[in-house]
Amino acid sequence: MMRLPTAVLPVLLAVTCAATAQRVPAGPPRDPFVVPLLKPLAGFGGAGVPAAAVSRPPEPRWNPPLHGLMVAGPRSMANVGGVLLGLGQSVDGYRLVAVRETEAEFTRHGQHFVLRMPQEQEVDPR
């Protein structure tokens, strides 16, 4: 067996400790039950890709049932999915801004949305 000079042992020990210290993760171990945050990949909305080029899924169309309308000037109301709203009140982030004979107009983020009453079916009098 080969004997190393005593001056080499402290150097080997220091190099071994330094290499080991770099491999040990800092902080507590990662919780295996926590979902990690995903980072965007380059070329898929990451760095260097303009925000306009990143496609987003379209917002689902807001189309709750319009059950009833009451046209009464500034006291007009609409029944949207069972919720009674006066002018200026909101449901699901949509603010009621106008009520007409057969429709209610809403705004959200500067966009206008119109809900219409369902068409009445003609009944055969026989």
Largest sheet: 4 strands, antiparallel
What is the H/E string? Answer: HEEEEEEE
Enumerate the spans where pLDDT stays under 50 for 5 or more consecutive residues.
Answer: none
Rg calc: 33 Å
Summed over residues and divided by their number, the pLDDT gives a mean of: 77
How does the helix and strand content classify structurally? Answer: alpha+beta
- Bin the helical content: 10-25%
In DSSP terms, counting alpha (H) and pi (I) runs of 4 or more, how many helices? 1
User: How widely separated are the two ends?
Assistant: 114 Å
Overall geometry? rod-shaped
Sheet with the most strands: spatial strand order: 4-5-6-7
What is the total tally of β strands? 7
Attribute tags:
about 130 residues; alpha+beta; 4-stranded antiparallel β-sheet; 3-stranded antiparallel β-sheet; 1 helix; 7 strands; about 25% strand; rod-shaped
